[in-house]
Amino acid sequence: MAATSVFMATPVARVTTQHLRKNINFSVVRCMSQDQQSSTDTSKTLAAPTPPPKKVSTKFSDVLAFSGPAPERINGRLAMIGFVSAMAVELSSGQDVFAQISHGGVPAFVVTSLVLSVASLVPLFKGVRAESKSSGLMTSDAELWNGRAAMLGLVALAFTEYVTGSALV
Fold first, then answer.
1. Which DSSP string do the residues of 69-106 spell out, in sequence order?
2. Rounded to an integer, what distance in angstroms lies between the CA atom of residue 77 and that of residue 87?
3. d(Cα 12, Cα 6) in Å, to the nearest integer?
4. How crowded is residue 55: how many other Cβ atoms within 10 Å of its Cβ?
């Protein structure tokens, strides 16, 4: 299949300027591309072969690598739970983030981190990726963006409460 280009110059209008008393001609150049079928192979269409599915590595060092699938996803999930939990406790009791951590929040954080990390790593070690299970509104990209927003929100919440010296809500 070949493409040819056709250039056409079309006179548009004659414009006369009143201050300079000159006639100026403008023209428009249009470019169109036309597909041409070769006369010998009109019945055959070449289909691109589909690449074989990419083999995913289940090695510990690949899963937890800096650019691997686990670190950002796990941190995002923890940040989403942490942000919602911090805001819920702040709304219910009026404690800021630092008071929540100092009054027994560390063991809850450690347990939540371990449970979510293990729950996130088990499918990755079995070779299942989040991209293969995402569809509709809840996609793996949406989870990453929500996790990034939660990470920024949690840092902004802690920073704002540190600067003001009181709870945000």
1. SHHHHHHHHHHHHHHHHHHHHHHHH---HHHHIIIIIH
2. 16
3. 18
4. 7
Q: Is the entire prediction scored with pTM above 0.85?
A: no
| Calpha distance 164→167 (Å, rounded) | 8
- 135: DSSP letter: B
Q: What angle do CA 144, 57, 134 make, to 5 degrees?
A: 35
- Provide the residue type at 95 as one letter: Q
Evaluated on CA atoms 107, 109, 114, 115, the torsion sign reads positive
Strands (E), the chain: 2-16, 23-36
The tens digit of pLDDT for each residue in 64-116 reads 888 888 888 899 999 999 999 999 989 999 888 888 888 888 898 899 899 99
